[in-house]
Amino acid sequence: MTVEISGLESVLARIAQIQAGLAGAQPALVPAGAPRPAAVNPAFHAALAAAAGDAAAGAAPFGVAASTGAALLTGGAAAGFPSALASVGAGQPSGSDIVASAEKYLGVPYVFGGSTPSGLDCSGLVQRAYGDLGISLPRIAADQAHAGAAVPSLAQAQPGDILAFGEPAHHVALYLGNDLMIAAPEPGDKVKIQSVYETPASIRRVVPSAGAPELTGPGLGSLPAAGQFSAPGLSQYAGIFGQNEARYQLPQGLLAAVAQTESGGNSRAVSPAGAQGLMQLMPATAQGLGVNPWEPAQAVQGAAQLLSKYLHAYGSVPLALAAYNAGPGAVEQYGGVPPYSETQKYVTKITALMAGRTG
């Protein structure tokens, strides 16, 4: 069996991170540079030792040389290696964790070669999103395009997968689900959520998403597509949402997610602040848009107009949502999502719904 050196390095790096303690409880987000606990997982050590044919399973935990890891890939024990990793799969970050890690950097300016919170390029964002959770990735896009396992197509992609564009890759992004990705696009731009504008040259899965099958190579079978947001109380409005998303060039699922978050699908809802109807439009806003907030079709059209306006003004779905919730003045004042707990939770919830995550 021939193993690409970049793939081998990725797996060995993964072993090193598991050795550093990722096999414990689901980790919280860890700031870059923060020390990680040196937890020990005896189950992983035993599984790895068994896969390698190491009779000294009681040796010091994680005393496994890089050469041993290579032997697991290239020698007779290769078949046992996936099961060794599977024994600790529940303790590693999921694809949704990777997405949440990347979303912390929304609004950070694009800086070529940047890899810090003050400026990121495309591969810097991907490396940092994984690195904050203790997973090492190569620095450049061309190498990241070979990390992890191959995903056959976008229809089978899961949140957290790496989308690579070009061969060799000149751009990378992280998939969110529902044909959306988070990326640091180009000079003069910033980290933002955008549509997957072209078919990726390759898709790589470094960690599994919740409920996603493990990818091990060719012959993967049929893998489920990323979740599509829906809510029973909103099914009657599906046609209205779809028509307005197409008319105003909005991402699929955005209007349904906003309606669910704003009113829970209740067209008669009234907020303490006086917002009205399915899309919770303020009376003055509805009047300015020329719509009746109590009439669902008109309310959705009004919301679509606003979101389209904000999306064009600010260039990203999270900033458009922040403007919808807190007002465009707040977005402009803070140069991004305002530091209001309500607004930040609002943006996070809706982008999660759009990506098919309900947790």
List the helices and strands and how they pair.
Elements: H1 5-22, H2 42-52, H3 66-74, H4 81-86, H5 95-103, E1 115-116, E2 119-120, H6 122-131, H7 141-144, E3 149-150, E4 162-165, E5 171-177, E6 180-183, E7 192-195, E8 202-205, H8 238-247, H9 254-263, H10 283-289, H11 296-314, H12 317-326, H13 328-334, H14 341-354
Antiparallel strand pairs: 1-2, 3-8, 4-5, 4-8, 5-6, 6-7
Helix pairs in contact: 1-3, 5-6, 8-11, 9-14, 11-12, 12-13, 12-14
3D architecture notes:
With 359 residues, the chain is α+β, with helices and mostly antiparallel strands. The protein has three domains: 5-91, no CATH class; 95-205, endopeptidase fold (from Nostoc punctiforme) (Alpha-Beta Complex); 232-354, Lysozyme. It is 40% helix and 8% strand. It contains 14 helices and eight strands. It has helices spanning 5-22, 42-52, 66-74, 81-86, 95-103, 122-131, 141-144, 238-247, 254-263, 283-289, 296-314, 317-326, 328-334, 341-354, and strands spanning 115-116, 119-120, 149-150, 162-165, 171-177, 180-183, 192-195, 202-205. The strands form two sheets. A six-stranded antiparallel sheet has the order 3-8-4-5-6-7. Strands 1-2 form a two-stranded antiparallel ribbon. The two termini are 40 Å apart.
